[in-house]
Design a protein that fits this description.
By secondary structure, the chain is an alpha+beta fold. The chain has one domain. The protein has helices at residues 15-23, 50-68, 74-77, 82-97; strands spanning 34-37, 110-118, 121-129, 147-157, 160-173, 181-184. The strands form 2 sheets. A 4-stranded antiparallel sheet has the order 2-3-4-5. A hairpin with a 2-residue loop joins strand 4 (147-157) and strand 5 (160-173). It is globular and about 40 Å long.
């Protein structure tokens, strides 16, 4: 899910991380935030598709996992494949190891464009906001002004739809009109942490 933010330039001196390593303290668990839609929930014609709903549910669960640094929630296991969860958790750990810390202000704004279903899986193409992240230099939610097409692969597992992979295209798209949701409360993007603070399944 790295397309939400740039990969470089997020360096923050990890003083708090060093302190935790020296003292061996375990930080308190972070309560999952609620999701507050700023101007109404998405209402496009594809929003009723279970494949689109799966993409949104997985994205929200992954964004909350990055916020809480906890990738073990039932919501995440019920919406995202184990491999995708492991990749997201490891990426956040690797970023923390490099003293780069980030979080998300809410689920990434997106507009579903198409659903191509075949058998027990589907490719869901969305227009998705770029650079949707917070860090020590970007402490408030950015306006979603530029979009990029992203293709999600979703599989059906019994009665559940799980997001397996995503692929960023080179196609720009119009993100204007996308519904925006923010977490309540908002995360503290200046907070630092140890890679071991990222809880994995």
């Amino acid at each position: 899910m790295q397309y939400r933010r740039r990969l470089m330039g997020l360096t923050v001196v990890g003083i708090a991380t060093i302190g935790l390593a020296l003292t061996g303290c375990t930080p308190a668990a972070i309560e999952p935030p609620s999701v507050s839609w700023q101007s109404g929930e998405p209402s496009g014609e594809l929003e009723s598709s279970p494949w689109v709903q799966a993409v949104r549910a997985s994205d929200t669960a992954l964004s909350i996992a990055a916020f809480t640094r906890d990738y073990t929630s039932d919501e995440l296991q019920d919406t995202t494949t184990a491999a995708a969860i492991d990749a997201a958790a490891q990426w956040q750990r690797d970023e923390a190891k490099a003293d780069r810390f980030f979080t998300y202000p809410g689920p990434v704004p997106m507009i579903p464009l198409s659903v191509d279903e075949e058998g027990g899986e589907a490719l869901v193409t969305v227009c998705q906001a770029q650079d949707w992240y917070l860090d020590a230099d970007r402490t408030s939610a950015p306006e979603p002004t530029s979009g990029r097409e992203v293709v999600y692969r979703v599989i059906r597992d019994d009665d559940t739809h799980l997001v397996e992979t995503d692929s960023v295209t080179t196609k720009d798209c119009d993100i204007a009109g996308a519904s925006v949701a923010l977490f309540d409360p908002q995360p503290d993007p200046t907070e630092t942490y140890s890679p071991d603070d990222v809880k994995v399944p």
